[in-house]
Amino acid sequence: MDKKLEKLLIRFITENQENVYRLAFSYVKNAENTLDIVQESIHKALSSSGTLKSEGSMKSWFYRIVVNTSLDFLRKQKKIQLVDDKTLEFHSPTSEDVYHDIDLEKALEELPYAFRTVVVLRYFEDLKIEEIAEVMNENINTVKTRLYQALRKLRIKMSNEFFEEVK
Predict the structure, then answer these.
(1) I need a surface site. Which of 1, 27, 51, 155 has the fewest CB within 10 A?
(2) Higher pLDDT, 103 or 19
(3) Nearest residue to 144 via CA among 61, 136, 95, 41
(4) What is the mean pLDDT of the segment spanning 111-136?
(5) In whole angstroms, what is the distance from residue 21 CA to residue 31 CA?
(6) Is 99's pLDDT higher than 70?
(7) C-alpha distances in angstroms, 23 versus 2, 153, 159?
(8) Nearest to 117 by CA among 1, 27, 14
(9) Domains and their CATH numbers in the chain
């Protein structure tokens, strides 16, 4: 990889570190594991930077590495689910009434990986459909279909929970 592209990659990672962290955290829900995934993703990106075709595809290329690294981690850790202190504190009852979109978070976690990834990349990472297709290495129409189905499932799940609360 030429030095110019390498410097651009390092600058991109530095400028987007919060987005990359948030993306990895959306999969593993643990601060320490998220940092490990981000670090491993950066290492993979720098060591395989020769496969980067142009600086225009850098964002989707790197996001694909983060998503794949996160999924690999989840496959390895499938049987053991550890929760860090911060997450445990967040979900424990407190004296103040702080509403966080727990229902949405729970509904997202129940979606299959492919659907959840599309929703997270589209609405939380603000990627375009074309970029999501590139990240997931899928056809644009497949991404659109998954997004539509995921939103439909979320809508059904959220409305069912609302009606159960009303009863």
Answers:
(1) 51
(2) 19
(3) 136
(4) 87
(5) 9
(6) no
(7) 28, 21, 26
(8) 27
(9) 1-98 (1.10.1740.10), 100-167 (1.10.10.10)
